[in-house]
Automatic annotation (TrEMBL):
Superkingdom of the source species: Bacteria
Gene3D superfamilies in the record: Medium-chain alcohol dehydrogenases, catalytic domain (3.90.180.10), NAD(P)-binding Rossmann-like Domain (3.40.50.720)
Entry's Gene Ontology cellular component terms: cytosol
Protein name: Uncharacterized protein
Record organism: Cnuibacter physcomitrellae
PANTHER family documented for this protein: QUINONE OXIDOREDUCTASE PIG3-RELATED, QUINONE OXIDOREDUCTASE-RELATED
Record has NADP as a keyword: yes
Amino acid sequence: MSLAVLARSFGSPEVLEVVEVDPPVAGPGQVVIEVRAAGVNPADAKLVAGTFGDDPSMLPIRPGSEVAGVVTAVGPDAVDGVLPGGDGPVSVGDEVIAYRVSGGYASAVAVRASSVFAKPPALDWAAASGLLLAGVTAWHLVEATGVGPDDVVIVFGASGGVGAMAVQLAALRGARVLGVASAANADYVASLGATPVARGAGLESRLRAALSASARAADAAAAGGAADAAGDGAPATVALDTVGGAEGLDAAVVLVADRSRIATIADFERGAALGIRLLGSGPGADPGAALRNAARAPLVALAAQGALTVTVAATYPLTSAADALTLPHAPGKVALLP
Ligand SMILES: NC(=O)c1ccc[n+]([C@@H]2O[C@H](COP(=O)([O-])OP(=O)(O)OC[C@H]3O[C@@H](n4cnc5c(N)ncnc54)[C@H](OP(=O)(O)O)[C@@H]3O)[C@@H](O)[C@H]2O)c1
């Protein structure tokens, strides 16, 4: 038998239970993965809560849309995956990550081979299971706003799963990055490659000061350390919001002149009212499905090169899925270890 986490009713994470189920079988175009780690994302709790629909026909719900593990069976025609070493068909014994999957909170899962990628060796199981959902969302944020080397980017929620990826991807594109997070997470945000700015009352003036200081530092670096530019009034050119609410978005529209270069994944109501980009699933939002799917392979490659890191805040056994979705944790991703 196989173990799976499921919800028989909509509600808070406490409705989740671990049950025995028939082991998954690799159908046409599928592989079976023995799950070593299942990535936990805020969307999992929203799915269980009924935020994405509460039709009883959806029950029981089996959350989990990304996993890392070992291939134990390969179905007919399962040849599409991006494979360990980059060539050859996916094989039993391959160490892989998979996104998007259904019911990833489990000891084993059947997955489309086209959703399977080689596990970057630099990431352990828990980290690897948290790479892709946050990664493709962050990729969509930097791509939709056209982040490049001349940009100054503000990331709201820089210590979060998506925010940490957005900081790293914007920095990899050569942008200067300011990362807004709680003051307690400033060192973590700095380690990702951003200038940390504490969230909370007075955020806009702290951002203005950080923008000025960043511009002065950039000018000095360009002039070999001799410049004495004022830097006052230096603008941001892009804002990426992963939190929502007035605090960040109201500051974003004041500090970034071009609203097509401000994007939110977390507050479509306020975002629509402000006329900024809405990314994800929801009315008026760009789901970016093709772009996100295409981002998986380059994200895996960046992680394999060590250019992209995933920090793990906590791991839990499958039996503690409710805790994984509710307990506060240090910055970084959470994973379930079957
Ligand atoms: N549209 C899409 O396609 C899409 C895709 C993925 C995720 N999402 C959504 O995007 C959001 C972020 O996802 P995630 O995986 O990055 O979540 P996460 O890992 O839980 O991070 C959220 C971050 O927000 C910050 N935060 C929490 N409360 C805050 C507050 N009151 N004010 C300001 N910042 C606060 C926290 O950092 P500090 O405490 O350091 O501030 C935390 O690190 C979630 O709502 C998720 O459902 C949307």
